[in-house]
Amino acid sequence: MITTEVTFDELAALIKQAAGITVDPKELKQSADSPFDSFGLDSLGLLGIVGELENRYGRSLPPDSERCRTPQEFLNLVNSTLKAGA
Amino acid sequence: MSNRRTRRAAVTGIGVVAPNGLGTDAYGKSVGEGLGVLDLISREGCEHLPLRVAGEVRAFDPAALIEEKFLVQTDRFSHFAMAAAALALDDAGLGGDPAEPFSIGVVTAAGSGGGEFGQRELQKLWGQGSKFVGPYQSIAWFYAASTGQISIRGGFKGPCGVVASDEAGGLDSLAHAARAVRRGTDVMVVGAAEAPLAPYSMVCQLGYPELSTVDDPDRAYRPFTEKACGFVPAEGGALLVVEDETRARERGVPVRATVAGHAATFTGASRWAESREGLARAIRGALDEAGCAPEEIDVVFADALGVPEADRAEALAIADALGAHGTRVPVTAPKTGIGRAYCAAPVLDTVAAVLAMEQGRVPPTPNVFDICHDLDLVMSRARPTELRTALVLSRGLMGSNAALVVRRGDESAR
């Protein structure tokens, strides 16, 4: 069984698509514990990314997913959710 | 520190995004030449609608002017507003990060909000489901969106607001900004921009009996004539920087004009005969506040709705309020060349008034050649004359009336 996992590349692309902010995936990975707002992403932007991921993977993410503070925290939550449902 | 009671609101910056020009100079040149740019509507999804002619802002590339993070969360009306605000701030020498964020506020007027963005998200709602509606729908369509985005983009933390009081709200916003300055805020970014030329927004307008559905751009909007057949809508707008006059002089920036007086009244939706009394009262109120005699008004920028009953009411209101001077003072309506951009229409007229005073000429009223009212309407070409004080009039389809008196920059020092 293939386990889907959202990567920093995919997250960077989603940040661009949903919030119009260009982030280098490498930088996102290197600064994975920096708060989202240091990349210019606000909570509405992250909410849009949550919605897009839910639509893309056909699964609900936990309530308050958009309150994650950092890219690492967010990807951990998303990927553990996707893995649990695989 | 100037005394608050004597603080005067000076116009120190102007930014325009209009159908006849991107930038204040281009707009001023087109207005001065009486250029008419009304044309068949070309925006996608509008071709089949019975509203055919409008003033479209073409060659506007928001991506070249506004950061993508602001573009994705805003409607076209906010794109116009943000672009115009940036031009106005540059003109005032206030571009870049503000030194004192709490001393700069923003107020805009809005007539319909972000219809195009809203339509796109509502189509996702009914076409794909609620999970496909983006979170920025919560803010992009809203009347206050442009005020919020201008303040966020500029880093302004002074008093902010939005005036939702019909088309005349464009003038009310200028009065609101002038009051904020008199009460102690140093700088206000103020004005309006609208984007009513998208399918949903256009369908909303089709119910207005005042709307012109004539499909000949040269004949669709001819107020004050026997051929008057309603008004033509437009998109775009203008933002101004209004600040404490003393502060402006201390900064060493030119005072382009001062906001001298304003008043507003309400006489009911589409009750055009009644608008005579309402508009006359607004004019008297604005003159009172400005301490201005009727004879001091050197030019009137008319509302010029293009509906015979409304045109008659306006001509009579000018005579009621200005007396014999009302039939002698030059009157103009440059908006016949670009259409009525709802709340932004009287703001664009205010800009035209400031430019007219700076350049010493009354711009003409495009497409209007033969009027049937007792007004000295300036037609065909600009009329050179010294202008010190201008009166700008506006009425809304929902019944608001407003008048604004602006004075030439160097007049206010008297």
Automatic annotation (TrEMBL), chain A:
InterPro entries: ACP-like_sf, PP-bd_ACP, Ppantetheine_attach_site. Signal peptide: none annotated. The lineage of its organism: Bacteria, Bacillati, Actinomycetota, Actinomycetes, Kitasatosporales. Residues 5-86 form the Carrier domain. SUPFAM superfamilies: ACP-like. Transmembrane segments: none annotated. Keywords: Phosphopantetheine, Phosphoprotein. This is Minimal PKS acyl carrier protein. It holds the Pfam family PP-binding.
